């Protein structure tokens, strides 16, 4: 009797291994198709039904869980990290809208400076580009990048920028 159970167990284990490999390959294809659909304009709500889930949140969660992430992270950790990042972005955007006038005023003053070092050219060009956007949150990172170039001769602007720190 032990011999008759052996091949059955071995075959079942081999089949499970093969199934796992097929599942991993399908998951990779699924994420690629989700990205293609999203790039083409499909919303998470549009994807929910084809993915067999009930909501846009479930569709996004499924995508995030299947996406590769840093070594050692779980799918749920990727979901939480993405949600945390988006919450921080929303908080910064709300703060920037509330402080838009001050951000734009400082950005204008900083871009008008003519005595900044050559290393400040890239941050200044990014501030100018951000000023062209309607969203004042676009100014936050370029202003922070320009901050180190203000300490030498423009302590007043550096102090104003420091006083206007996002959450």
What is the β-strand count? Answer: 0
How is the quaternary structure best described?
Answer: single chain
Average pLDDT taken over every residue: 89
| Uncertain runs | none
H-E order:
HHHHHHHH
Net shape = elongated
Strand-pairing-aware structural class: mainly alpha
Q: Describe the biggest sheet?
A: none
How far apart lie the N and C ends?
70 Å
Number of helices: 8
Radius of gyration: 26 Å
Strand fraction equals: under 5%
Helix content: over 70%
Protein name: Type III effector protein
Organism: Actinacidiphila alni
Tell me what you see in this structure:
This protein has helices at 2-39, 44-51, 56-66, 75-98, 100-111, 121-131, 140-146, 155-163. It folds into 2 domains: 2-68, no CATH class; 95-163, no CATH class. The protein is built from 8 helices and no strands. It comes from Actinacidiphila alni.
Write the layout of secondary structure elements.
Elements: H1 2-39, H2 44-51, H3 56-66, H4 75-98, H5 100-111, H6 121-131, H7 140-146, H8 155-163
Helix pairs in contact: 2-3, 3-4, 5-6, 6-7
């Amino acid at each position: 009797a032990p011999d008759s159970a052996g091949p059955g167990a071995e075959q079942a284990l081999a089949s499970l291994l093969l199934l796992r490999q097929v599942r991993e390959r399908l998951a990779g294809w699924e994420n690629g198709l989700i990205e293609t659909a999203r790039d083409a304009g499909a919303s998470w709500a549009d994807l929910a039904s084809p993915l067999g889930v009930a909501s846009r949140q479930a569709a996004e969660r499924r995508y995030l869980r299947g996406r590769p992430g840093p070594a050692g992270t779980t799918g749920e950790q990727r979901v939480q990290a993405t949600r945390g990042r988006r919450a921080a972005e929303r908080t910064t955007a709300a703060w920037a809208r509330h402080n838009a006038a001050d951000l734009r005023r400082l950005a204008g003053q900083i871009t008008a400076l003519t005595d900044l070092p050559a290393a400040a050219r890239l941050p200044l060009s990014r501030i100018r580009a951000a000023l062209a956007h309607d969203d004042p949150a676009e100014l936050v990172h370029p202003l922070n990048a320009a901050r180190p170039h203000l300490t030498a001769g423009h302590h007043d602007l550096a102090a104003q920028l420091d006083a206007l720190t996002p959450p």
